Amino acid sequence: MDNISNHRTSALESVLAGAGVHVRNRDDVMQKVAAIAQDGPDKLLFLSDFDQTLTRYWVNGERGFTSYKVVEKSPLMSEDYREKARQLADKYHPIEVAVDMSLEEKTQHMVKWWEGNHNLMIGERIKRSQLKEMVANANIQFRDKCEVLFSELDSFNIPLLVFSAGLGGTN
């Protein structure tokens, strides 16, 4: 095994040994990662969620905004919008986090929440320039080293796909 392979294996073993990392079959994970490395970056795709995965949960000691909160809390939005969006959140968030409800049942409610928010936003006739201003003034931040991650993915031409139940196209 060459030095680069030894370094990568050692780095992976260090990650797998970390606090809070639980792996059922360590050898299986090592084999899968080795196969990914063997195939090279041309066959790799990086997939991530956005809210509180790429972004911080806490920002400056306060709860960081989700993409919806960026819009909901913005002074660029009408008071009527903010109130109705808050009412939707008050109604549907408890359902989103309920442990005694099936995924199928929750999904129906989450679709209604999304549709309600979407319709409210359409009524506001938001412009892209306003979204940029909302993001710039919101309590939202990428996690540490996201820029490094994005740069590394770009340097190897590895696509990054962000799947999210939140808003898209706000950059």
Structure, described:
The chain is mostly helical. The chain has a domain at 1-39. 55% of the residues lie in helices and 6% in strands. The protein contains seven helices and four strands, in the order ααβββαααααβ. β2 and β3 form a beta hairpin. α4 (79-97) packs antiparallel against α5 (103-124). It is globular and about 60 Å long. The model has no long low-confidence stretch (mean pLDDT 89). This is 5'-nucleotidase. It catalyses: a ribonucleoside 5'-phosphate + H2O = a ribonucleoside + phosphate. Its EC number is 3.1.3.5.
Which features does this protein show?
mainly alpha; globular; 6% strand; single chain; 7 helices; two-stranded parallel sheet; two-stranded antiparallel ribbon
Question: What layout of secondary structure does this protein have?
Answer:
Layout: H1 3-16, H2 26-39, E1 46-48, E2 58-59, E3 62-63, H3 67-72, H4 79-97, H5 103-124, H6 128-136, H7 146-155, E4 160-162
Parallel strand pairs: 1-4
Antiparallel strand pairs: 2-3
Helix pairs in contact: 4-5
GO biological process, one term: nucleotide metabolic process
Catalytic activity: a ribonucleoside 5'-phosphate + H2O = a ribonucleoside + phosphate
Enzyme class: hydrolase
Radius of gyration from CA coordinates? 20 Å
Output the strand order for the largest sheet: 1-4
- How many H/I helical runs? 7
Which runs of at least 5 residues are low in confidence (pLDDT < 50)?
none
Which class best fits the helix and strand makeup? mainly alpha
Counted beta strands: 4
Q: List SSEs in N-to-C order.
A: HHEEEHHHHHE
